[in-house]
Write a structure and sequence with these properties.
410 residues; two-stranded antiparallel sheet; 14 strands
Length: 410
Amino acid sequence: MQKYFKRQDRSLKRLKASVMALAMAGMTIFGNGTWMPGANLSQVYASENLLDISEYGPAGGQSPAANGMIIAPAGTSTTEASANVNAGTASSSGTSSVVIAAAPSISTTSVAASSTQETSAATPVTTASQASSLVASSVNLAKLSSDGSTASLGDTVNSDYAVLYDLDRHHIVAEKNSSKVIYPASMTKIMTLLVAVEHISNLDDKVTITQDIVDYIYKHDASNCGFAAGEQVTVRDLLYGVILPSGADAVMALSRYVAGGDDAFVALMNQKAKDLGLSANAHFVNATGLYHKDHHLTVRDMAEILNAAMANPTARTILTTPSYRMTATKQHPSGLSFSNLFLSRISGQDKNGVSVMAAKTGYISQSMYCAASYAVSANGRHYIAVTGHADSAWAAVYDHARMYKNYTDK
C-alpha cells in the first residue's frame, strides 16, 4: 500500500510539472479539460479542478500580484439544483435539535449582501421560510458512540475514514474508522470560518492583502482566492473566500484582522475546540489546513465543527452559498468569482431525494481527498457526513452521495 501511494505521489508531481511547463508556454488547463492559450496558471480556479490533482492550487505560475483573476469552471451551477427543502418539523418525536436562529451580532441578510452578485451568487441557498428546517444537533456529535444499529461502511465507500450522523435522532448511522486520527486539510477552514464570524462585528471593514501573504501562498502551493498584494478586500468577501475557493490568502488576512496574528488566531481555534468538547485528538497548528504532524482530529470531531458552524447563521449562509462574486476592487474591477465545486458536483448525483445544503472539501497528500457536508432528506431529516482519504475529489463526492442514498430515512 505504501508503494502504491508513493507511485501515486510521483505521478501527481510529474503531472504538476507538466502543467507548469505548459503554463510557462502560455497555456492553462481548466477543470473542464479545456486548454486556454495565453492564460496564466494563476487564473486556474483555485478549488479542486486543477487536473483534479488537489484542492490546493494553482501549482506555481505567475504571482496573483501580477494577474490574480480566478475563473470558475465551465458548467458550474450557480444554485444547488436540489436545494428544495420540505419544511416540516425540525426533529423526530422524542428527540431534540437546536433550530438555527439569527445571531445577535451579524445578520444573515448583511453577510449575503454584496455590491456585485453573480446570478444568485451571494444569496444563500436557504430562504427565510426554509431557515427553520435547518437544524443543528443539541448533542455533541464528537462524543456520540456507535451502537448495534450503526452500519459499517467497509468497502462500500472509497474513503478510509467516514461517518454519517442523523442530527434529529442524535445517532451515528454509519461509520468507518471514525475514531481514528486524520489530517483534516482544508476542512480545517470550517473552524476558521466559525471562529472568525464569532469575533467580527463589521463585515464592511476592509483588510489589505500584504505581499508576505501572497508570497506564502505561492511558496506553499496553497489554494487561494487570487488576491493581489495591496488589494483592499472587505471582511465579508474574505469570509466567502475562506470557504468557496478555499483561499489561504483569505484565511491569513482574516487571522490577522481578527486576532492580530496567525498564532493568536490558532489559539482561538484550539480554545473553540475545547469549548465544543472535541476529542483529545483535536488540535490545530494553523488556520489553513496545510500539513503539520500536530494538526489533526477525527472525522467525528469535524462533524461537530460543521454542526456548530451550521448553528451560526453567518457561517451557515456562507457554507450554503454555491457561488459568489466579490466586491469590485482596483485590482479586480469586475470582482473575483468564487464557486463551491462540491455542491455543484454532488447536485447531479443520485441521492434518493436528499438535498446537500452545505459542504467543504480538503486535500493534502497526507490526507488525500476529504469532505464534510450537511444535508436534508426527502422526509425532512437532517444529516452530516464527513469523509477522509478518498482516492480522488470525485471519489469523495460519490462517497457522500452513496451514504445519503443508502443510509438516510431508514
